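Lecture 7 notes: from sequence to structure.

We start with a single chain of 516 residues. Read the sequence below before looking at the structure.
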Amino acid sequence: MNLAIMLKRTASTYPDRVAVFRGTTPYCSFRELADRCARMGVQLRTRLNIQPGDCIAIVSRNIPAFVEALFSCWYAGAVAVPINPKLHSKEIAFILSDCSARCCFISDDHREAFARLKDAGAYSGSVIVFGSEEYRSLYEGVVAKPAERRPEDVAWIFYTSGTTGRPKGAQLTHRNLRTMSLGYSADYERLQPGDSILHIGPMCHGSGLYILPHLAAGAGQITLASSNFDPAEVFDLIKAHPRIGFFAAPTIVRRLTEFAAINKPDTSNLRIIVYGGAPMYVEDLKRALSIFGPKFAQVYGQGETPMAISVLSREAHEESLRDGDFRRLATVGVPQSVVEVRIADDAGQEVPSGTSGEVLVRGDTVMKGYLHNETATKSALRDGWLWTGDVGVMDPSGHILLKDRSKDVIISGGSNIYPREVEEVLLEHAAVAEVSVIGVPDPEWGEVVVAFVVPRIGERPLEGELDRLCLDRIARYKRPKRYVFLDALPKSHLGKILKRELRHFALETDGDRGDA
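Now the structure, written as C-alpha cells:
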C-alpha cells in the first residue's frame, strides 16, 4: 500500500481540519493538502518524467512545504530522500549522486549552494525552490490517485553512516513506515483529531518520521514560524495549541527545561515529549520531570529500523516519579510491540539475562537494505536480524540498558558524528602525521568531538588551520571542539589505536582544556 493512501483517507475523514500550521497560522487543511499533493504527483510524473522508484531529494529547514513535498513524492510513486540541510554542500552532493536523485526540493536558503553544485557539475537533476513560481505551478493540473506501490517498495531513504564515515542509504519501505506508525499508536499514545506535533527537531530525521502516525490520526503538524529553535517560541506555541507534543533530542529537552525553570511558562497544553537520538542523563531527566511532570516517553531506534527498537513509556516515567526509584530511567525501556529484540553474542545466539551482547532487532520496521552497498547490507542483516552495533544488557523484566556504541559513533546534540570522517579531513593537513577522534561526555551536548593530533616532526599545525579545513569539508557541528597534540598515539601490539586510553586521557585532562 502506498503511504499516500494514508493522506487520502485522512482527507476524506477530516477534510476541514487544519493539517499543517506555520506557528499559529493555518497553512492548509487535510483536503487542501491531499489535493495539492495529488496534483503535484501528476506534475512530477508528466512535467519532470519522474518514474515509480525514482528518487526525489528534499533539502530544507522545517517549513510546511516539507509535508507537501514528502507526500507528493509518494503520490508520484517516487522515493523521498530527505537530507539534513546542515550538511556541507559536498556531503549533500555525495548523497544526491549516490541515490541518483532526479529532482530536489530545496528551501530558499539553499539557492546559492545548489547553484554552485550545478555550476560545478556535481548535480544535474531538477531543482525546485519551495515558494517559487515553479513550485506553485505544481499545484496546477489534474488530480489523480496515488501511484500503485507494493508494501516492499522503497518509500524513504534515510542516510546514516557507518565506521567509514561515508553515508549509507537505509532503504525504508512503505511497509516499514506503516508498521512504525502502528507501533507509535500501540506503545506511546492513542492519537486523535485535535492533537498536534510540533516539529522542533529536523523533519529530515526523527521528527519527520512522526509526521506519519499523526497525519493518519487526523492530528496537525506545526512548524516553528522562525524555522529555528527558540525556547520562547516553543512555549508560545505550546500555550497556543491544545494537546501538543513533540520529539526532541536530550540536548533540546535540557534547554527547554532550563528555560522553563527560569521563566515558568504555561505548559498545561503539553501532551507528551518523546525524546531519543542520544543518551539522556538521569539527573537531567529527573529535573525535566520536576518541571513538566510525567509527560515523557523515550524512543530507541536507528535509521535502519526507524523509531522502532524499544520504548520507555510515559507510564514508566510516571511510576519512577511516584515511587522515587529512578533506576529504570537509565534504560531505553522494553522492546516495542512491532519488533522482536534479543541481546546476542558474536554468533547471534541469545545471551542470558544480565549479560552484555549486541542488540539485534527483527520485524517489519527493519530496512530493506543499504542502497548500492551489498557488503554493508550483508553485515547488518543476518538471518533476518538487524545487527545494530550497539552493546546492551536486558534485565529479567525486558528493560534494555545500553552499554556502549560499538562503532565509536559520537552522538552530539542528537546528531551522529563519525570519527573516521573527521579524521580523514584532518589528515589532509600537511603538518598532521596521525590523528584519532573520539567523543567525550558533555553536559550540554551529550558528547563533543575531541581530536588527538600527532604533528609531523618539526611541525605544529595551528588549531585555526585545522578548523578551517574542517569547515571547508564537513558540517560545522562535526568540527572538533578541542585539539590535543601528542608525540604518539597509544597503540596495541597489533598497531591498533587504543581509543579507550585516549578517552581516559581526555577525561583526566578536561579541567585544563581550552576549547577550540
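The chain has three domains: 4-330, 338-405, 410-512. Keep this in mind for problem set 3.
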